[in-house]
Amino acid sequence: MSPNGAADARPLVVHLLHRFDTGGLENGVVSVINHLPAFRHAVVAVTEITAFKERVKAPGTQFIALNKPPGQGFWLYPRVYRLLRELRPAVVHTRNLGAMEFQLPAWAARVPLRVHSEHGWDTNDLGGVSVTNQRLRRVYGVGTQRFVALSKAIENYLTGPVGFAAERVQRICNGVDTLRFAPSTTVPDAWLYRRSEHLVIGAVGRMQAVKDPLNLVDAFLRLRELCPADWPRLRLIMLGGGPLLEAVQQRLADTGAAGQAWLPGDRSDIAQLLPQFDIFVLPSQAEGISNTLLEAMACGCAPVATDVGGNAELVEAGEGGNGLLVPPQDSEALAAALARLVAEPPLRQRLAAASLARVREQFSLDRMVTAYGHLYAGDLPRSGG
After folding, report:
1. What is the average per-residue pLDDT within 4-26?
2. Residues 101-139: pLDDT tens digits?
3. Which residues contact 9 (CB under 8 A, 6 or more apart)?
4. Is the CB of residue 128 less than 8 Å from the CB of residue 81?
5. Cα angle, residue 133 at apex, residues 100 and 117 outer, rounded to 5°
6. CA Rg, the chain, in Å?
7. What is the DSSP letter of 322?
8. pTM of the predicted model as reported, rounded to 2 decimal places
């Protein structure tokens, strides 16, 4: 129903995903919901919905958790089928392999438009080499009309090893809200450091193996030898919680560097903290199109990222580029890149300015939302990439 009590005639989009919790994928869903008022929205989580749902501001958005225990979800198909017949959505949009199997009950429920998007590699299948996962996608995608790839690498995966026709695959990169994430001279109350005294190297992300936070810690510690004169003023900020948080804290404590680091866990004020970073680091072993990297670029940070997944689509290395790329799981190479930016302030400032310009020109939120609006309306051009 609409606020005045009349029936709401806007088409309904059901966003069906494994879990609705803090993360880049979920942030993208929130952005789409909050900025596409031409549609009604419902979030259906296969497992659970956390307090993260408070970030959704679109009135009337429904939240439904199926509370599935670990294991195959076949037994949930009848329930999902009945739910979709009740909701009668115009679109069902699943995301990643953990939710893709529910394209089958969406097909059975005759949902008019069935969309599936891939945001990055599965944590147990970096690079998409698993033949089993490729076959599962082929089976689950039989009745799916459109596929969305968030990076060129994922697009090539879907049209290559998985085998979907190019005309069924559309690449829509993440977009960042450049009004919310922007350079700022306002220092938040929580901030501990001063630009005149410190140089901040920062990261934002869940502390789990695929994000490789210990790689960044080891690279930071290496700066003690590579930049001895600058070492006393260097600070490491790592925002985010997760299973490796304690191990990261222990590594810093064991090496006597805990006093030069701040690891506060999950934060709700990322947009206020990011502009305080001088250098932003993404040390992941695998990525799709990283929201946090885009947000850091939009805040005027000089980026250093591992050369995996879609990172090279955001960070152009080399002369005239906007950042530095290094091999994954190579703390020495990462430390060398950081040492270069520490030692060369003009380079650091040029990369920050180029990153800001790149985000505003090519990765705006408006551009992303417009693409999803066309997709849900069914009028995207029938062409790949």
Report:
1. 87
2. 999 999 999 999 999 999 887 777 878 889 999 999 999
3. none
4. no
5. 35
6. 21
7. S
8. 0.79
